[in-house]
Amino acid sequence: MVQNLKTDVLVIGAGPAGSMTAKWAAKNGARVLMIEKRQEIGSPVRCGEGMSKSWLPEVGITPGAWINLEVEGARIFSPREQVFEINEKHAGNEVGYVVERDGFDKALAIDAANAGTEIRLKTAATEILKEGGKVVGARVKQFGEPFEIRAKVTIGADGFESQVGRWAGLPTNIALRDMDTCLQYRMTNVDCDTRYCDFYLGEVAPGGYVWVFPKADGLANVGIGVQLSKVRGMADPRTYLDAWIAKHPAYSKGKTIDVVGGGVSISQPVKQSVTDGLMLVGDAARMIDPLTGGGIANGCIAGKICGEVAAQAVHAGDTSRAFLDRYEKGWRAKLEEKLYRNWYAKEKLCTLSDATFDKIIDALQGVRLEKLSVHNILKAVHDKYPDVTREFEAFL
User: Fold this and answer.
1) Radius of gyration over every alpha carbon of the chain, rounded to an integer in angstroms
2) Residues 5-47+102-175+268-339, CATH architecture
3) Euclidean distance between CA atoms 29 and 386, whole angstroms
4) 0.85 exceeded by the pTM?
5) pLDDT grade for 92, boundaries at 50, 70 and 90
6) CA 309 to CA 9: how far, in whole Å?
7) How far apart are CA 96 and CA 82, in angstroms?
8) Is 3.20.20.80 the CATH classification of the domain at 70-97+176-265?
9) Residue 174 and residue 268: Cα distance in Å, rounded?
10) Contact, 94 vs 51, CB < 8 A?
11) Which band of pLDDT confidence, cut at 50, 70 and 90, is reported for residue 87?
12) pLDDT bracket for residue 369 (50, 70, 90)
């Protein structure tokens, strides 16, 4: 029989946000236990495997063997496939490195372990423990054996479906229009340009986009995200992706060697990410960029803040919501404005026709933007097609 455990900080979920939280809590002197329901950290992969790189030093990540490629930037294709190129610096959360996501996740878990975190695999939370309305840990099962882990601070890092948040009574409901259903093939024998991550807009992927992230010469992740409110059946993403591939000779001759699928939130951040004894981080707090679906950078940036505040709470002997609110304020100061702005942009973009997307990309031809933002893009489009920007007056 497994013995009940006690720790300062319990982190539920060993994805990037969880490992980052665990690392920085341990580095700041807390006793940390991180649990993961799967038997292997980082697997199965549910990610396009593209990410930006400018934020890595901020959270103490050293580039490693998990990098496949460093790309120059992104190419955005209109429905009639006119191209707008963006350099890596301005291309957003998805562009900079193409990585082996399972290797990346393992590297972050190793960093957390080296900082002093204890890690337990095949250990799933089944219920939150509460005393007097305060979260004090979780009931878990490891290899089918139930036991309790008592913790001064509990961290929910269990993805956008977060059960931990619901169990704790935090508002985590999500609308269908705020979810994408995604499917990705890893394909070999393709003609991909290893300098760019490519994005295809319009009705080829209703409410989302098709992406091509090169992994090496002749090898790429080819995937699609479709807004859940726009699909009629679970096979729709595959139908759309297969149709797109069939129309592109560079990929139709390719061979699929791996298939992954899953859901991604494209919502606003949660209204509340802390309560007495508990904090939510990463996808569990809806920190995924609603415009791109990228969540690694935001989760890690928030994870550092979360880990530091967790350790501070332990040392202060105060794990109340009032104390933990410094995490809420910290991550919102860094991320919230862009998350809400990109959610609003996503809401508008989902209503645009292919003809409008074509006008937007056409208007950007030859335009050099000092800084890539929704505001600057719309200003450039307004100069050529003012009718297109009427729906976006709040951004101008």
Assistant:
1) 21
2) 3-Layer(bba) Sandwich (3.50)
3) 56
4) yes
5) low
6) 11
7) 22
8) no
9) 9
10) yes
11) confident
12) low
pLDDT band at 172 (very low <50, low <70, confident <90, very high): confident
> What integer pLDDT is reported at residue 276 of this predicted model?
98
- Cα separation, 349 vs 231, in Å, equals 17
Backbone angles phi, psi at 275, to 5 degrees: -145, 180
Distance CA(12)–CA(117), nearest Å, equals 13
On whether the CB atoms of residues 33 and 71 are closer than 8 A, the answer is no
Domain residue spans of the chain? 5-47+102-175+268-339, 70-97+176-265, 347-395
Tokens of 202: 């319009």
Instruction: Look at 55 and 172; give whichever has higher pLDDT.
Output: 55
Return d(Cα 117, Cα 390) in angstroms, integer: 52
Pair of tokens at residue 85: 């190129």
CB 176 within 8 A of CB 327: no
Asked whether 71 and 97 are in contact (CB, 8 A), the reply is yes
**How sure is the predictor about 71, in pLDDT bands with cuts at 50, 70 and 90?**
very high
Q: What is the pLDDT of residue 167?
A: 95
